[in-house]
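Appendix B: complex inputs.
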Amino acid sequence: MLLSKLLIPITKDLPADAKIKSHQLMLRTGMIRQSSAGIYSWLPLGFKVMKKIEQIVREEQNKIGAQEMLMPTIQSADIWKESGRYDDYGEEMLRIKDRQGREMLYGPTNEELITEIFRSSVKSYKSLPQMLYHIQWKFRDEVRPRFGVMRCREFFMKDAYSFDTDENSAKKSYNKMFFAYLNTFKRLDLQAIPMAADTGPIGGDLSHEFVILAETGESKIYADKKIFEVNLKNFKFDDKSLEKMRKDFSSFYAVTDDKYKKDEFDKNVNKSNQIITKGIEVGHIFYFGDKYSKPLNCFVDTKEGKKDLVKMGSYGIGVSRLVGAIIEAKYNNEIMKWPKAVSPFDVVIIPSISKNNNENMVKASKIYDELKKQNVDALLDDVDENMSIKFKKHDLIGVPFQIILGSKSKENKFEFKEVNQEAKILSLEEIKRKLKK
RNA sequence: CGGGGUGUAGCGAAGCCUGGUAUCGCACUUGGUUUGGGACCAAGGGAUCGUAGGUUCGAAUCCUACCACCCCGACCA
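Resulting structure:
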């Protein structure tokens, strides 16, 4: 992609409304554009990052055997009346009437719909367990949307649902998701802490929030540093090992502000291991048994020929929120560095350009073509501007690797730089090797 | 939802108090000079001043209503 052709309306001035760095950066680099309060359009740069996050989330869901599907954004109110949540959900639910006067709503979540699908499709215990998920837009009519994509009304979310014959089996599904979540955040290069959580309006009795560490996070966190020593690689993908994994993680103290008690913290965590920081909730998982299968009459036939309520869990990851959350975690001192896995480009080529001498631009184009052949997604900064302006721009765009063609490059060697590290003078072959994933 | 505030060009602001038909910086266009950390010179384009109504010879400015957006608080991926 040529920078001159990329729709990336960079501004030097901060938009007055943006208060936190992810919101500021996303507006300044034109990743998003506000459409109305808490509702955003995703411009190419932001969209690309979000799609990469989505893909990682998808891959990790698939790995644990969850099946992808897609449910609509608009739902009928009927099933929500059946579950009793049509009234409970309150003002947060956006209610719509169609031309026939039927009550519809823009889905804030999908427990009802998936249960309705499940009950009419699955009749036997033999089909269980099942895990289904979709990645879809949701709408919650927040009282006060703010902080850009961190707290908006329309958001992109992965939500998964598990179906099991009994609680024991359901908890195994829960543990699988727990595992998938930790792997997902790891691939996104985020430090995530699973924390025992309240179940809130979704209901149920087992729940964890996944909070990633970021200084500007919304909630304060008190945790035992040792939780980071738990290594996912030590666990196999089998029920016993996953159960142990969850217990290992749960054995360390980690709570949010509302549950924090100083004496408990001091008692459970060595002073030297105490970390007090801030975090952003990016995932939430629940086991809630028959909370929805009961009102919605979702039964399967058991081995004994009886009918039993299906035991369910639900599992959310805020995909669009993660875009902002990654920025909160990675953007520092006016410099953004995307994790390689989600960066909008693999590398940016920055030639020093002048009218009388297009040598750098010619070389840069060759490098660009070479990299393209190797499936490296490169951005070529073909704009005729001062290098200093270019550098400032790329500090914001945040591509983690730069190939710079200017005063320091030699005949066939170029400056290669990983953001926040020293530049090296390397040949194209060496650069290619560095960029191999 | 309660409290507060703001709407002027793509972005950031001035002008409003004290009415006389819109100013500045960035960005953009053209030409020239520059070219390693947010350049310079010259010329240029772009605004129904949130919307509607009212007062007035005359409204961005005063009045009324509406709309939108933002901030502070209680809730959420």
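The mean pLDDT of chain A is 92.
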